[in-house]
Amino acid sequence: MLPVLYLATQNKHKVEELSALLQDNFVIRDLSTLSLSEEIPETGNTLEENSLQKARYIAEKFQVTCLADDSGLEVEALDGAPGVFSARYAGEPKNDQANLHLLLTNLSGITNRRARFVTVLTYYANGSYTSFEGEIQGNIVEVPRGTQGFGYDPIFQPENETRTFAEMSLAEKNLIAHRARALEKFKNYLDKT
Ligand code: ITT
Description:
The protein is an alpha/beta fold and about 190 residues long.
């Protein structure tokens, strides 16, 4: 029987992406099966800190094995912003459309469009944890394209691709994206333990 793994995220798109890649290794559960009414605290200054904070919070509160994801988009011409603040770039409450449009406004007239998505996954089991990072390089397009995915997907075009992430299916995105790359490392770790 496969072990149970809880995904310590309140983002349903992350649940979809992660579940598709982990279904052979675990019975995946999202947070809907736990009685969690509050937002998971996220007060760190780095992706690593936030990823661990989310994993530890759920693992300790409910005594479960879990995997958390903290991720962000780092834009070269903006000195790495929005980075760890990607989810709330345009302020509270979190709003994907507002974030994406603020980013385009802040990049208007700037020719260097280079950016990368980064994910830090933290696996928390029996009181100890391990983290895994994945990234993908690309460019911010001038005008949003596509309707798939979430967040900044309509304005991120991965290197060597002609489409944005939002113009790809979930399966296509999962072949190359930051989250999938971090998960590959997690799976290699599982194979060795
Ligand atoms: P949880 O904390 O509950 O996991 P969240 O959406 O708040 O969900 P983060 O704190 O990790 O997640 O914020 C990351 C933000 O970066 C997210 O809200 C998106 O706007 C963006 N982002 C992360 N991964 C992305 C992806 O694959 N495609 C597009 N945008 C992404």
